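Protocol step 4 of 5: obtain the predicted structure for the target chain.
Materials: sequence only (see below). No template structures provided, no constraints applied. The aim of this step is simply to have a reference model before the mutagenesis design in step 5. Sequence pasted as it appears in the construct record:
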Amino acid sequence: MTQAEERRDVAPEGAAAESASPQRRCIVTRTPAEKAELIRFVLGPDGDVVPDLAERLPGHGYWVRADRATLTEAVKKNAFAKAMRAPVKPAADLPDRVAALVERQVVDLLGLARRGGKLVAGYEKVDGWLRTGRAALLIEASDAGADGRSKLARHTHPGVEIWSPLTGAALGRAVGRDHAVHIAVSPGGLAQRLKTALRRQQGFADRPSGPKTGASQTISDKRN
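Step 4 output (structure tokens):
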């Protein structure tokens, strides 16, 4: 691979070029992956490394697999300086900053889904959506009781992803309630964006795990 080809592979020219392909190459592992499995970074105006979760910032994009271990390695080895061909030094706390940004993105998307009528909360409403196939995502509080979670899992159609990303208090704040244990999100573009954000968040969790899917599966707490 020539130097020019390598540069195009790692850092396509601008946002328009980046939207042409669904895959990008991680600057640490050097392996291609779907953009949903990666996080985009750009070189900031002050020479700093800026995370771009929305993938909208102008300039070259530099992609890192969306997990704490890979980003920590990128910071430790300063893979950004090599990829960007610039004397940049990423902040030591960049993995923690990205983890907070990804969690904030999950919260913001849940709020957006609530305001757009794409979300219901509460056992009865969620159960109704699950039984009638109106849900693409089932989101449970990480501190919810096992009994209610198991009952809803049995009513979940195949293909519905089940996540437990936040506590009931945090989920409640996201959807405008004091507390939320069970949330269902309807199919569509917003649900897809949430799935991406949830996967990225799990990549930065202390004990990450993937989602449960389908019917008749017992949910395990993803934080414990």
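Step 4 remarks: The chain is about 40% helix and 15% strand. The beta strands are 23-25, 32-34, 38-43, 49-51, 62-65, 119-121, 137-140, 161-163, 182-185, 212-213.
Proceed to step 5.
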